[in-house]
Amino acid sequence: MSRPAIAHPPLPQPASLVPPIYARLLRMLLQHADVDGDRVLAAAGLDWATLVTDDKRLGRDTIVRLAEGAMAAMRRPWLGLDLGGGAPVSAHGSLGYAVVTSRDLREAVITLARYGTTRNDTMAWTCTDTREGMTMQATERTDLGAVRGFVVDTVLGAILRMIETAVGHVPPDLRIELPLPTPAWREQYQRFGVADVRFDRPAFAFHVAQRDLALPCIGADAKAHASACRECEEELAEVAGAGMAERVAGLLASVGDGAYPRMADVAARCGISARTLIRRLHADGATFQQLLDAARQQRALWMLLHTAEPVEEIAARLGYADTSNFSRTVRRWFGATPRELREGGAAASRS
After folding, report:
1. Is 118 contained in some domain?
2. Which residue, 65, 84, 168, 252, has fewest beta-carbon neighbours within 10 Å?
3. What is d(CA 221, CA 105) in angstroms, rounded to the nearest whole number?
């Protein structure tokens, strides 16, 4: 008896967080290391042909699966530093251009803080003048679970690369604070020329000394900077203007263990009533139940293919009290039972 084909329909993306250029660069990094980057993309629900033609930003679950797969394939826990530090300034679009055409390092840092979310919406930045100079600090807005360190390292590497390109070097007095435990491979951070990197800090932050803020940017160009900032403002408005369906999908996708929130709870988190939430979701062509089903669908597929947890436990974690009902739902979603999905996934990983 032949095994039924396993259908993996395209799933709705949760809140968009980063442009696809970073996934393209990661795939290139994997390929250069003789790792099958296309297999890593596939495990994250991506394919190269679509990735190079579609500018749709990547959502939280896609980022998590992509980072987990890449780190497992490379066996390199500092892979985020490689990705961020190796990305050319052009990869950061208008933000990168606005940074390198700034007048001086102060303006470059302020530009990074204002427009950082246009390239990575998992964290927002604020700039504060201090007696010693200036502090640029991040507020994390998305629970990235096990790949939090990868994302922080990627952002760190990218910012240091932009600063180096802007002023010609990384200021030796720059101090970096990371909300990560001290790794066994901490020497990897020294490649950027920053002597003061501190771990186990409460927040991700850059501290720039007062005298370094006046460092002139090599490519300073007031007209080009103003033009790039106008483009960044447009992109910032697009990111801030994400539809209600996208916001709710993001909230549901970031749920860890435990029950999914009720519609009333999600409405409260969005600062609106349940009735308003229903109306605004309808305007986006969605319902709360559709988004909840999509979140469960993505999480179910990931857990079945990438964990060894019993089906009963997966069903319970996704809010199904009846395992048989969960199995019927999985068959409706993917055209295969949980067991067939796992067998098909294991066979694909051996091929």
Report:
1. yes
2. 168
3. 13
